[in-house]
Inverse folding.
């Protein structure tokens, strides 16, 4: 089977998978569709009978009364029409409701899946591109179900009923319509899939364009600082108008050519019906009412196919978009609660690295044989030039990545054996660049400990020296901090992050040089809060400024992915030709 067809079936399987939980709603829609189809299929026949009854003036005996036949047939027409209209009304309502529910479910499942994918995925993908994939797939899923599967289903059922009526009355008209339908279907099946490759390129171009555009907006401050607004506008223009839109225009040109061929076929079919009707009427083998009936069936038979032709773009665009999205959503999630995952009763905080090796996606090794031990309550500083693996060591402890070789132990248990959610709850990070949610200060502090009460939040804020500035805000703890905490200063954001860590009450604390960007007064507050937070906890400091690690119980010096020195500041600073000594002297020589 050709690859294009396999792709269609793959996309349709996804659509039906999302429909599966809604069997009851689908059954109701099928009942309504059947009623609508029967109504649509019978109306041309009844219309023809009405015209013939008007011409004949025949009477019909009904319940002992002689009534004009046309009156009875019009009454039947009214009943069938009203039944169809009522079915269409309920069908439209339920169809729209189901489409909206499915679109919402896809977005929830899609973005929910992103939260569960490992960090290795998020560090290699553009947020804007992935978000665009999911959003477009959700919208197209709604369109496929709403405009195609459900709306067109009753129309195609009407075709079969209509053809049966045509063949039963005048087979010659069925012989005209059926080959035309077969040729039409053949052209559609052969021509439409050829556009798949072009559509795939178009979707990729749009995804890249949205990804670049989102990245630019997310970095608005450096853009403005560099006065690069015009440059970015021109860049977006090129990727959208000169690349993505170019593919779209090429696609439309091909599709319109195909549509013109369809119209020509329909025109010749209708012409054949007119000619045959004229011949049969002239022989008195066809009534005027039957002629109108067959012309109506001709229009009705091609109507769904014309709609299918118009909606084929929806089908193709939708299935391509869904398949591209499913490539992301089918990736394996992190195993948060894997079978056999241990949950320790009393975590102390002893950490051990044994011969740990690691590389990103098979590239050059970042860590090579890392060995060290950390006792409960010790403060460990990781020191070295950028790119030597300091952050990677911490990422491995949180199991954002898995070591290629070696073991990492927490209280003598291999962290691979621990429940992942449990493990990460034991670790809190106070980063150098704090990212806050566009929410209240209260909710930002208790993020990760959502059951914490207001008193707990306030105590944590007091311990972090954050209550001093929080109480000055008009809404205090209900103050909105803005996008990424933009309404707070760097020092205020740091104290909110420390309050969050205090409330989390971890056994292991990670400090990524949180005071490096602070003024003297803010640094004093933050340092005091950190010292209180570090009491009794195993603490890792990712050190950029060596002046901050003098009090560390142990300094681990990294170079080219290896531990080259280990000891206290006073020991390492005396080591002739030592890496730490050179780094320390270089930093102070630059001041």
């Amino acid at each position: 089977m050709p690859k294009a067809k396999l792709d269609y079936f793959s996309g349709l399987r996804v659509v039906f998978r999302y429909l599966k939980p809604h069997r009851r709603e689908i059954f109701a829609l099928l009942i309504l569709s059947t009623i609508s189809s029967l109504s649509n299929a019978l109306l041309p026949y009844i219309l023809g009978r009405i015209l013939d009854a008007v011409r004949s003036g025949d009477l019909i005996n009904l319940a002992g009364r002689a009534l004009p036949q046309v009156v009875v047939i019009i009454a039947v027409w009214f009943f069938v029409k009203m039944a169809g209209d009522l079915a269409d009304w309920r069908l439209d309502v339920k169809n729209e409701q189901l489409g909206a529910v499915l679109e919402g479910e896809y977005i929830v499942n899609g973005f929910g899946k992103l939260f569960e994918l490992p960090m290795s995925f998020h560090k290699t993908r553009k947020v804007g591109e992935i978000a665009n994939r999911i959003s477009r797939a959700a919208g197209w899923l709604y369109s496929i179900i709403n405009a195609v599967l459900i709306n067109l289903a009753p129309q195609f059922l009407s075709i079969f009923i209509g053809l049966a009526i045509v063949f039963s009355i005048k087979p010659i008209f069925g012989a005209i319509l059926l080959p035309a339908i077969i040729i039409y279907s053949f052209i559609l099946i052969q021509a439409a899939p050829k556009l798949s490759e072009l559509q795939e390129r178009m979707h990729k171009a749009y995804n890249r364009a949205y990804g670049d555009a989102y990245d630019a907006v997310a970095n608005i401050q450096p853009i403005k600082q560099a006065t690069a607004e015009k440059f970015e506008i021109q860049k977006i223009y090129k990727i959208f108008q000169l690349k993505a839109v170019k593919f779209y225009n090429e696609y439309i040109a091909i599709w319109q050519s195909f549509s013109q061929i369809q119209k020509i076929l329909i025109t010749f079919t209708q012409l054949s019906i007119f000619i045959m009707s004229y011949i049969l009427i002239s022989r008195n083998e066809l009534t005027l009412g039957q002629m109108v009936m067959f012309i109506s069936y001709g229009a009705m038979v091609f109507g769904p196919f014309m709609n299918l032709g118009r909606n084929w773009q929806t089908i193709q665009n939708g299935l391509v978009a869904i398949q591209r999205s499913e490539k992301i959503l089918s990736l394996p999630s992190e195993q948060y609660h894997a079978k056999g995952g241990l949950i320790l009763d009393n975590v102390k905080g002893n950490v051990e690295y044994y011969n740990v090796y690691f590389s990103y996606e098979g590239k050059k090794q970042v860590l090579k044989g890392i060995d060290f031990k950390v006792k409960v309550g010790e403060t460990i500083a990781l020191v070295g030039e950028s790119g030597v693996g300091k952050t990677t060591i911490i990422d491995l402890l949180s199991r954002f990545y898995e070591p290629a070789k070696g073991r990492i132990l927490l209280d003598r248990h291999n962290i691979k054996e621990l429940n992942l959610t449990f493990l990460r709850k034991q670790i809190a990070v106070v980063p150098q660049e704090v990212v806050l949610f566009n929410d209240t200060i209260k909710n930002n502090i208790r993020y990760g400990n959502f059951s914490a009460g207001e008193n707990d939040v306030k105590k944590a804020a007091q311990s972090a020296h954050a209550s001093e500035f929080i109480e000055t805000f008009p809404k205090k703890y209900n103050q909105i901090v803005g996008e990424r905490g933009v309404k707070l200063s760097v020092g205020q954001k740091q104290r909110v992050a420390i309050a969050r860590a205090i409330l989390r009450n971890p056994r292991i604390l990670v400090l990524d040089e949180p005071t490096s960007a602070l003024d003297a007064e803010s640094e004093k507050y933050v340092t005091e809060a950190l010292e209180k937070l570090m009491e009794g906890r195993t603490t890792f400091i990712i050190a950029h400024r060596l002046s901050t690690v003098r009090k560390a119980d142990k300094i681990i010096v990294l170079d080219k992915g290896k531990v080259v020195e280990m000891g206290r500041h006073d020991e390492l600073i005396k080591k002739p030709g030592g890496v730490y000594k050179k780094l320390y002297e270089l930093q102070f020589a630059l001041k």
Q: What stands out?
A: Confidence is low (pLDDT under 50) at residues 1-6.
